[in-house]
Amino acid sequence: MIRDQETMQILLDSIRSFVKEELIPREEEVAESDEIPEDIVSQMRDMGLFGLTIPEEFGGLGVTMEEEVNIAFELGRTSPAFRSFIGTNNGIGSIGILLDGTSAQKADYLPKLASGEILSAFCLTEPDSGTDAASLRTTAVRDGNDYIINGTKRYITNAPHAGIFTVMARTNPEIKGAKGISAFIVGADVQGITIGKRDKKMGQKGAHTADVIFDNVRVPASALIGEQEGVGFKTAMKVLDKGRLHIAAIAVGAAERVLEDSLRYAMERKQFGQAIADFQLIQGMLADSKAEVYAAKCMVLDAARKRDDGLNVSTEASCAKMFATEMCSRVADRGVQIHGGAGYISEYAVERFYRDVRLFRLYEGTTQIQQVIIARNMIREAQA
Questions:
Q1: Dihedral over alpha carbons 189, 130, 32, 42 (to 10 degrees)
Q2: Domain residues for 301?
Q3: Residue tagged active-site, from 66, 67, 74, 364
């Protein structure tokens, strides 16, 4: 649902211009320095990009799902590191508070997240608990009016920069699996929290992940999201359901950028006295990529509109995430092939994108997890 087409178009034009004129020219700088320049962060704050999905009453823009994916199509056209820096405030780091938090929790944290005053991070994955998230071992033991949290979280996006963490921890060790898990809001400055060294990744330089270690971290009972135990895993799944559509849209944007670069190169590169774009085998790769990008974009928009209509889009979100991220890797692979030897050289953006987009198929649920979700939902619906 797009609430006001004219207003939305103005916002999209502004973001498109920002991506083209400010972000794309700085991609190589970010890749080499492994940092997002502070002047870029400042511009993101001024544009309201940290609060895109946060309601207007808390200082955000309150975009709908359809509006969000259209914005993501634009942001996806540049280095994923830029989107990652603002992504947790708009997604996994804030949506849990927005969906299940108390009025006090929303009032305390959402305005700061919307303005970019603080960054958030989502602490679910652990060294021995990745895809099997419900088996997490981090504990939160009640002690009077407090909880004491112990455990280690792994691959936590924006951990080195976060001001708050949404932490999934087991509050009832007697209950195995998802029902014993609760969600907490924990300030990064609380005693007992240690941030590990930044992970050295295959790609996405400038987007930082690290371990977060909780050693007897004491938080008040008011830090429990919704002030209710045992619903943390449900909160996490709600967060991921929405996030999967966002990642799918980012993958579409990245694929569009790679295809655009590949087409330009194919039209400029001459072999045998003519542009390689004139050769049918090159045209075949361009056409396959164009069709797949179009299909993925249609899927994302359809699922987003259904979510805005209040429908359960668990299956559609997983379909979109699975197809769009796999598609993006195929488009990137063809992009390198079209560039030939030049595609293996870091001077061309396609080499960086080839590495960067590989992560899309892993985080917020691997492709294989999406397959399981889709199939199980199909079986459940058939048995109903």
A1: -40
A2: 234-383
A3: 364
Write down which residue in 211, 230, 249 finishes a domain: 230
Kindly give the confidence (pLDDT) of every residue in the chain, 384 residues in length, as a single tens digit, with 9 standing for 90 and above.
878 889 999 999 999 999 999 999 999 999 999 999 999 999 999 999 999 999 999 999 999 999 999 999 999 999 999 999 999 999 888 988 998 899 999 999 999 999 999 999 999 999 988 777 778 999 999 999 999 999 999 999 999 999 999 999 999 888 887 888 999 999 999 999 999 999 999 999 999 999 999 999 999 999 999 988 988 878 777 777 889 999 999 999 999 999 999 999 999 999 999 999 999 999 999 999 999 999 999 999 999 999 999 999 999 999 999 999 999 999 999 999 999 999 999 999 999 999 999 999 998 889 999 999 999 999 999 998
Q: Distance between CA 228 and CA 232 in Å, rounded?
A: 9
Residues 265 and 377 in one domain: yes
Q: Measured between alpha carbons, how far is 99 from 277 in angstroms, rounded to an integer?
A: 49
Q: Are residues 209 and 124 in the same domain?
A: yes
pTM across the whole model: 0.94
- Note the helical H segments in 206-348: 232-268, 280-308, 314-339
Please count the other Cβ atoms lying within 10 Å of the Cβ belonging to residue 198: 13
Positive or negative, the Cα torsion across 98, 102, 107, 109? negative
Q: Any catalytic annotation for residue 227?
A: no
Q: Which CATH number goes with the domain that contains 53?
A: 1.10.540.10
